[in-house]
């Protein structure tokens, strides 16, 4: 009986030890998995404000020169070919003559090209590129995806004094400057 009792104690001790080791191993594995998931989420957030949104405009030369007259659109809203066409025609920039010193123009060209929709991993940019096919529109409002997203809004809404036109993203997209264009952040002014 004493011998059986020793075997039972030994077996219980072994099972409890094995259970503790396995529990620790699995718990540690879950912590690593969660840490990797968190790091991936943080990396994505830092690149595109989370959810694959557009990056915040962070080029002071672009902001100062282009943002002086209109919203400094995120480069990811158009492909690099569109930005190249727009910058090549600054003498007639939608009815205005734009003069940039050579250094500022070079900085803006490089910024827009490097951050254009065709070089972005943002979900919105991917949708824009898919909708364009081989088109290189001169206006963001000519992008088929953007037109489809706004098709339910009557044209007279865009003509309101508080909006002005479809190109005034900030009028309705309250978080446009942060690169967030989802429907949850839209308020159409009266």
Question: Top keywords for this entry?
Answer:
190 residues, mainly alpha, 8 helices
Written account of the structure:
This protein is mostly helical. It has 2 domains: 1-48; 60-185, no CATH class. 53% of the residues lie in helices and 0% in strands. It contains 8 helices and no strands. It has helices at residues 2-48, 60-66, 80-88, 102-114, 123-132, 144-149, 155-158, 169-172. Helix 3 (80-88) runs antiparallel to helix 4. The longest helix is centred in the first third of the chain and has 47 residues, at 2-48. The protein is elongated, with a radius of gyration of 27 Å. Residues 40-48 have low confidence and may be disordered.
- Share of helix among residues? 40-55%
Radius of gyration: 27 Å
How does the major sheet shape up?
A: none
Which stretches are poorly predicted, pLDDT < 50 over at least 5 residues?
Answer: 40-48
- What structural category do the secondary elements indicate? mainly alpha
Binned strand content: under 5%
| Number of structurally distinct domains | 2
Name the assembly state: single chain
Could you tell me the number of beta strands?
Answer: 0
- Cα distance spanning the termini: 90 Å
Mean pLDDT level: 86
Estimate the global geometry from the Cα principal axes: elongated
Give the SSE string: HHHHHHHH
- Continuous helix count: 8
